[in-house]
Structures are given as C-alpha cells and as structure tokens.
Amino acid sequence: MDNEIRKIAWPILLNIQDPVTVKDISKTDNTSTPKMIVFDKDQKWTKDSKLSDRKMADQIDKDVNRSLNHFNLSFGLKMYRNKLSEMMQALFETNQAWSYYQGYNDVCSVSLVAMNQNMGYHVAQSLSHYYFKDFLKSSFDKGVIPALNLMMKIIQATNPDIHDKISFIQMPTFAVSWIITWFAHDLDDINDTYRIFDF
User: Fold this and answer.
1) Domain of 19: which CATH number?
2) I need a surface site. Which of 98, 118, 141, 168 has the fewest CB within 10 A?
3) What is the pTM of this model?
C-alpha cells in the first residue's frame, strides 16, 4: 500500500466523486450532518479564504506551526505548513458550525501529505463529516466524553484484567488523542498512521 493507491482508494471510500449531491435532508431534521453527502473531488475551494473567526484562525496557525514534524519530509516543511494552513482555514470558513480542537491539525496533515492539497481538503472534509463530526462540536462533552466512556466499557468487555487495574480511573483521558486524531498525533512512523487511516 502506498500513497498512489491511497489517492485512488480514499476518495472512493469517502464518496468523493462527481457531482456534488446532498440527499435526504429533511427540513425538520435537526441533526447537523446530512444522511448522505457526496463530495466533488474537482470542486474548487478558495485557498485565499481567511477564516472570519480570528481567535480560531490564530489557534489553527499556532498548531500548524507545530505540525508535520514526524512526517520526515525531506524538504518543503514550510511549504506544507502553508498549504495546511490554507486548507484548514478554508475548511472552517466553509463549515462555520464546526469548532476547532487541538489535534485536528494532525488529521488534516495526514490527508494533505497523502493526497495533495486539493484532494487533501476534500478528504479532510469528508472525514470530518463522517468520522470526526462529534469532536468538532462546541463542547467535548458532546463527542469525546461519550467515546471515552465507551472505551472503558470495551476494555472491560475485552480484557477484564486490564480494566481491573485501571478501574480507579474515572475517565481514560490517556486515550483522548488516540480517538480525536486516529493516532496521527501519537505515532512516530507516518506509515503506521496511514495504515490506521486506510482501515
């Protein structure tokens, strides 16, 4: 598996195709995510789009400046960080209901380096709508906390001995970055991160 195959496979797996259609959205449905959404891989997005929420934009830029260190990029770190910043600013300007969280930059870094900037944007957008939407809510209470509670139940069901040893922990906060970045923040080898994203 390599990034050339990923450039073909990930868009297919994430319904990034032509044309853009959004179906089955009821006006009475109060959920924030459409039932089915298809992204257009050729759809243009504005790279010059500056995020109107300056506080969020500043936090994104701070995190971008710490991004991509473990990718072992032989050259172009500054160029990749500029592209990552453009991509993330556009994502949050387009999706103003989202709230940025630290670690989301790692998710976007994986899609940027694996795909390129344009497809990386669409991959990050699709991943966000399908898999990270609960973490992009205004409060972690609505997304991360339920996932952490579920993790303790999974540990209890799959390995009672480990659960007994950590049962004094009310909330497995050690696993937050695992959940909200799909290990993109924690693994040193980017190829391991790619394989998790493949899965």
Assistant:
1) 1.10.8.1310
2) 168
3) 0.80
